[in-house]
Amino acid sequence: MPAKPGIVFAHGLWADGSCFSKLITPLLQEGYEVAASQHGLDSLGGDVAAVVRTLGRVTGPVLLVGHSYGGTLITAAGTDDRVAGLVYIAALAPDETETSQEQQSKFARTDVFEHIEVTDGRIWLRPDGIGCFAGDLPEAEQKLVYATQMVPVPDLFDQKADGTAWRSKPSWYIVANDDRTVNPELQRAAAQRMGAKTFDIDSSHVPMLSHPEFVLDVIRSAADSL
Question: pLDDT (tens digit, 9 = 90+) per residue, 36-65?
């Protein structure tokens, strides 16, 4: 058995694997095997499959870390036997009876949805919406996040995948109190429903970029427990 679990990251919408850059470098320096799934947001099934493939790039047991829609992905992919635990960062975590949209629709609509447009068959975040997504980052970092955004097909949140890993595997949840993309009340309810060990931070939707040390401490704690 390896001395440390492998760590696999799953990104959400309007971000790619680079959103975990401030976490990956120090974790590698600490001796963890780390990989970030890069998925196309073309279909939920395809994105889950991409995460499952990425599990094979690190030595198990694996700690899966999902941000935003990445929480939906780790909820399904996390049923894989190689996965030992789940960390959710301001994330969705639908039950087996829910789609991502159904979970989201139970809570008040957030500001970011006033700043999107559907063009070329994709849902794009407009430049005037980056403050709703990453408003506590310096302007230069906000522009980088915007420039590297991944864009979903319009019905992605209405698709469903089998499997609810948080029902059988230990979970940790980081609630972003100032989130204007995923409602913080959704986050708290999701964490409570899954019985996750919960951590709150006054952050935008991207605490892994605005408060990386806080997020790293949660990941280290989860990894140590495995």
Answer: 999 999 999 999 999 999 999 999 899 999
Residue 201 has pLDDT above 80, yes or no: yes
Contact assessment for residue 125 and residue 113, using Cβ atoms and an 8 Å cutoff: no
Indicate if the alpha-carbon torsion angle 134, 223, 173, 165 is positive or negative: positive
Count the Cβ atoms, other than its own, within 10 Å of residue 7: 25
Alpha helix segments (H runs only) across the chain: 21-29, 44-55, 70-77, 100-104, 130-134, 139-147, 184-194, 207-210, 212-225
| DSSP H helical ranges for 99-211 | 100-104, 130-134, 139-147, 184-194, 207-210
For β-strands 116-119 and 122-125, DSSP reports them as antiparallel
| pLDDT higher than 70, residue 131 | yes
Distances in Å between the Cα of 43 and the Cα atoms of 19, 153, 206 are 21, 7, 23
Nearest CA among 25, 9, 6 for reference residue 17: 9
Q: Which of 59, 76, 104 is nearest to 166 (CA)?
A: 76
Mean pLDDT, the chain, as a whole number?
A: 97
